[in-house]
Every structure is written in C-alpha cells, then in structure tokens.
Write a structure and sequence with these properties.
Layout (H helix, E strand, L loop, with lengths): L7 H24 L7 H10 L7 H10 L9 H11 L1
Length: 86
C-alpha cells in the first residue's frame, strides 16, 4: 500500500521530529517532576539545619527559631478521621 503524492523521503524527517518530541515529552514528564514539600517535610529540614553545638547560646537560638504555635493544628483532623472510622 503506497501513499499517493507523498515522497517517501519526506516521511523520514517527520518521523524523526515526532520521535524527538516524544523523547522530550518523556524527559519532561518523568525526570523533571519536583516533589511538593508538605509542612512536616519543611519542619524536618529545619531541624536538620539546627546547630550541632552544645553551647547554651546555640541551643537558645535554635529554640527561638522553632515555631511551636501550630503544634496541635492537625489534632482536629485526626479526631474527625477517628470519628468517621468508628
């Protein structure tokens, strides 16, 4: 089965462009995905940046940089999930 009015040599560059576009699309979708950091991951990374010193001033500075204001923010959500489970 032949294609009328189309030069067979012109199909090769079109196929090459399609293959290149598919490779680019695969690269973008699989290798460029950036994970979204959740709130606890941000807090864990903050803990990793705390100083390793046992000096009182360093410990005090780390404590001042730590936010404990929303420590129990997820408790309401956990209670709702437990209520719906039972």
């Amino acid at each position: 089965m032949s294609i009328p009015n189309v030069n067979k040599n012109s199909i090769l560059p079109i196929a090459a462009v399609v293959v290149i576009l598919m490779v680019i699309m695969a690269y973008v979708t699989y290798y460029k995905k950036l994970p979204v950091k959740t709130s606890y991951e941000k807090e864990i990374s903050q803990i990793k940046t705390q100083s390793k010193s046992n000096d009182i001033n360093s410990i005090e500075e780390d404590l001042m940089d730590t936010s404990l204001g929303d420590l129990d923010s997820e408790l309401d959500e956990i209670e709702k999930e437990l209520e719906t489970a039972y």
